[in-house]
Q: What sequence folds into this?
């Protein structure tokens, strides 16, 4: 006990356990850090379990290959395609390209349009009547096309033929399809779809004979010099609108007068230029004779 200047007694302050508090602080921080890490880990695990339980599964994971269909396609491939494209779709030099990555869509376009198998090596495969076993107008032909495409798809992957067919592949907005066609297709296929010549003996074919499925699969696979249009470049709806425009043009390609081979503004301009120039030359000759 001490005595202050006023004479009153004052008890000394109690001693603080300095050493014990300082030693306890690091352990408290460590426990808080461990608890926080455990909480974050449990939260991440909970989110992962919830996502796995409720997230939609991709179609590829659910799709089961039809082994019987693939086996039938392999038989057809060995009978009609293996000589040029190889036993493993790897292709053969100076005979045929690899089929790895071309997909079921390319098989449908090339075989249903008669371009494959080719009769001989040319700059470009030309359209002809398909083999009877692959004629898309018959039930047997459609089944064989599906089987052959399934075999190539199972072993090489690539774009697939759309599930819809016929008029179901025609969009609701041919006006928008016309704009997209002029931006992406008219430079090769002409404004009215009659086709045109390209370099190195190749050409853009006329679109009138092609079915909706063939036009759609051609856009997906890009045969010959044609570029591929993925769903990021042209959405499925935009592809369908283009098909609707092409079908509309095929039906109304000759609204009246001389169609001039259906070549559109180019042919009309050349015709007018030729007529005008011939008239001017004739007028000049007449003036000279009169003089």
A:
């Amino acid at each position: 006990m001490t005595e202050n200047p006023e004479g009153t007694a004052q008890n000394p302050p109690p001693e603080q356990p300095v050493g014990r508090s300082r030693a306890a602080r690091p352990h408290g921080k460590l426990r808080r850090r461990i608890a926080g890490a455990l909480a974050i880990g449990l939260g991440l695990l909970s989110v992962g379990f919830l996502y796995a339980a409720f997230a939609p599964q991709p179609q590829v994971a659910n799709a089961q290959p039809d082994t019987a269909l693939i086996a039938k396609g392999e038989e057809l491939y060995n009978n009609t395609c293996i000589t040029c494209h190889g036993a493993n779709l790897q292709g053969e030099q100076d005979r045929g390209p690899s089929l790895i990555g071309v997909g079921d869509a390319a098989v449908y376009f090339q075989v249903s349009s008669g371009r494959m198998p080719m009769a001989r090596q040319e700059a470009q495969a030309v359209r002809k009547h398909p083999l009877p076993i692959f004629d898309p107008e018959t039930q047997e032909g459609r089944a064989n096309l599906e089987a052959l495409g399934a075999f190539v798809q199972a072993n090489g992957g690539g774009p697939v033929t759309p599930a819809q067919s016929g008029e179901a592949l025609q969009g609701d907005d041919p006006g928008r399809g016309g704009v997209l066609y002029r931006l992406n297709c008219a430079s090769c296929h002409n404004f009215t779809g009659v086709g045109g010549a390209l370099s190195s003996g190749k050409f853009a074919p006329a679109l009138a004979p092609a079915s909706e499925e063939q036009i759609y699969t051609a856009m997906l696979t890009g045969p010959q010099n044609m570029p591929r249009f993925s769903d990021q470049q042209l959405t499925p709806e935009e592809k369908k609108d283009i098909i609707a425009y092409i079908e509309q043009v095929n039906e109304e390609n000759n609204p009246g007068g001389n169609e001039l081979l259906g070549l559109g503004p180019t042919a009309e301009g050349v015709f007018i230029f030729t007529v005008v120039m011939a008239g001017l030359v004739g007028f000049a000759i007449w003036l000279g004779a009169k003089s």
Q: What stands out?
A: The two ends are 148 Å apart (CA to CA).
